[in-house]
Structure formats: C-alpha cells, structure tokens
Amino acid sequence: MVINVFQIAKQKFLEHFNNMNKKHNEYNMTTAALAVAKENLHKNGYLDLEVDPTLDLVAEINKLKKEKNMIILAHYYQESEIQDVADYIGDSLGLSQKAANTEADIIVFAGVHFMAETAKMLNPKKTVLLPDLKAGCSLADSCPPHLFKKFKAKYPDHVVISYINCTAELKTLTDVCCTSTNAKTIVESVPKDKGIIFAPDKNLGAWLIKKTGRDLVLWNGACMVHEIFSNEKITKLQIRHPEAKFIAHPECEAHILDKADFIGSTSQLINFTQENDSKEFIVATESGILHQMQLKSPDKTFIPAPPNNTCACNNCPFMKRNTMEKLYLTMKYNLPEVTLSNEVIKKGLPSITKMLEISKAAGL
Ligand code: SF4
Predict the structure, then answer these.
(1) Given this model, what pLDDT does residue 309 score?
(2) What b/e sequence results for 246-258 when a residue is b if at least 16 CB atoms lie within 10 Å of its CB, and e otherwise?
(3) Which ligand 1 atom is nearest residue 201's CA?
(4) Hey, whose CA ends up nearest to atom 2 of ligand 1?
(5) Is 316's C-beta closer than 6 angstroms to any atom of ligand 1?
(6) C-beta of 112 in contact with ligand 1 (< 6 A)
(7) Per-residue model confidence (pLDDT) at position 144
(8) Which end of the chain has fewer beta carbons closer than 10 Å to its terminal beta carbon, N or C?
C-alpha cells in the first residue's frame, strides 16, 4: 500500500515535470521565433509567425480588443472576414472621421498604409498598427513627393487639393485633402478666381472637372485597380443583364464612367444599391465592397465589373495583403506600428483637419 502511494506520487511528479519542460521548450521556441520575426519585420512587412490553425481567431481578436482597448477600423475593400470583425467599416472619409474621434488607446487599421498614416496624423500620441506595412497603394506611389514639389513650383498661386490616397509626405505639400465623397465640395470651397492643382488621381480629377466646371491642373497618377476595367466585357455583361444598373467609382477611367448609371464613392455606391429599385448591379470598383452590398441587400444580385485580364473580379493586391492571421498577430504583439516624424505630422495635419472642417460644415 505504501509503495503504491509512493509510485503514484512519483508518476504525478514526472508528469508535472514533463509538462513544465514541454511548456518551457514551447516558450523558448516562441520567444526565439518572435525575435526572428521582429528582426525581419521591415523586410517582410509583417510578423511572420505561425498561427495555430485551430485557434478561434474571431474570439481571440475580440478578446484582445477588450483587453487592450483597441479599435479596428476597416476599409470596404478588406476581406469579408476582416470586415465582420471590425468595429467600424467605411470609406476614406468615414474612416478619417472615426479615427479623429476614437477614444481607443490603440488604432488597428485594416486598410492600406496611407490610411494608417492619416490616423496617426490625427492621433500622434496613440499607437497605430497596420497588419502589413507593405499594404501600400499604387495611386499613392504614382505621386513621388520630390517630383510633385517641382510640379507644384510651376503653379505658385494655385491651391493644392490632394486626394487622401497619397503619402503623408505629399500631404505636407497639400493645402486641403479630399476623398471621393467630399471631392466636389472641397473643389467648390476654393474661390473661383483661384487656380487648383489636383493630385494624384487624374481620373478623379477629370471627373471633377466635368462635375464642377473648374479648370484643374492634374497630376498624372492613377489607381491600378480602377484602371483595368474592360469596356468591352462590361458591355457584354450589360447585354446579358439588361435590367442591371451599372455603377462605378470615380477613380475609373472616363470611358468607363461614361457608361455608368451612377458614379460615387464606396459609401455612396452602397447607399445607391440600397435605395435603388433595381435587383441587379454591375459594380466597377474593388470587389471587397460587394460583401457589404450583399449584407445590406440580401435579395439583390451584385456582379463585379470584369477587368482587362483573366481574373473574374477586381482585387486590390495591397488591400488583400491583410489577413485574419496578420490582424491577430498585430493585435497580440502591437506590431507593426506606423510612425511619422513630428515634422511630417505638423506640416501634413492641417490638410486633413481642413478637409474634415469643410465636410462637417457641408453636413458630410
Ligand atoms: S484600390 Fe487603388 S487606390 Fe485603393 S488602395 Fe488599392 S491601389 Fe490604392
């Protein structure tokens, strides 16, 4: 009897010892992997760590949100599962307004780099996280600030309006930013006798010239996602779906916009699909928006407008760099963080606050 008790105790001790050893080894492996991931953060753009595939990521993300007082702001172009776990989903204007007013300690931006930079400018003292630093933007990249500076110097009396889809550095060379929701209002807020430079999107700029009758000087930039819609394929789609309304984002080229029944920002497109009686819509913008359209109007059909390549839909490769796993790791380790120099914040912020003031006064 005494021997049995001794043997059981010994067995329990060994089990406990083995478990401790296993946990210790796992801890060492995780710590080592984390150190390597941190070292490679800027090369990879994100924390390259394995995530247990059995983990309930939605539950874990929600737990981290509460524990750390984090807010997830997501753009409509994000994967649907990221949109579903976000605290706020919106277009660039809505996201900037939300970032300006949040009481969260940490802003997690499920979007692209310029959006996280805008949030950082509005919240210099807060931590702003982006799941993947390489989630950039072809439109922002199409306007390098050092070249824009020379371009701007040719029109010294002009007001500079920049689409918010631009780098923080470009914002330091900008008088007032705009989004596709408020672009017309911002252009019209400039006195008629003043010239205007509009950067970086030439397609949005050309559409604004038509809408406002103003003679804008355009920078020659564009978004790769909105530039590849196929006029021919859209026409064929319209023949197959004669009742469908064709709706488009103003970043599309003029020959695509000319065919559209409605042109608007992402939030305006969503509102249109809710309010319009049509049951079918062909949508010319990034395909991530279809998720919200479908959620808001489950009885309607949404067809992504086809691009000039073999893909059946239109994805932004930058927006789609964010995944649920990267989002979870970002929130767990507070990395990668988006930072800006005080000088860039000081010089760039007025262009955003001015946009927010004009929008507020216009009821947007
Ligand atoms: S859809 Fe175009 S403008 Fe938007 S983030 Fe992607 S590349 Fe930039």
Answers:
(1) 75
(2) bbbbbbbbeebbe
(3) 3
(4) 223
(5) yes
(6) yes
(7) 97
(8) N
d(CA 158, ligand 1 centre) in Å = 27
Instruction: Return the ligand 1 atom nearest residue 114 CA.
Output: 5
Judge if the beta carbon of residue 159 lies within 6 A of ligand 1: no
> Is the CB of 247 inside a 6 Å radius of any atom of ligand 1?
no
In this prediction, residue 71 carries a pLDDT of 97
As beta bridge partners, residue 109 has 73
Cα atoms found within 13 Å of the Cα of residue 32, Cβ hemisphere only: 6
pLDDT at 23: 63
Q: Is 138 in the pocket of ligand 1 (CB under 6 A)?
A: yes
**In the Cβ-directed half-sphere of 33, how many Cα atoms lie within 13 Å?**
13
* Cβ of residue 223 lying under 6 Å from some atom of ligand 1: yes
CA of 200 to the centre of ligand 1 (A): 12
Beta-carbon-side half-sphere exposure of residue 13 (alpha carbons within 13 Å): 6
Buried-exposed string 13-43: b where 16+ CB fall within 10 A, e elsewhere: eeeeeeeeeeeeeeeeeeeeebeebeeebee
Q: State the pLDDT at residue 24.
A: 62
Residues of the chain scoring pLDDT < 70? 1-6, 13, 17-18, 20-29, 310-313
With a 6 A CB cut-off, is 284 part of the ligand 1 pocket?
Answer: no
Strands 176-178 and 245-248: unpaired
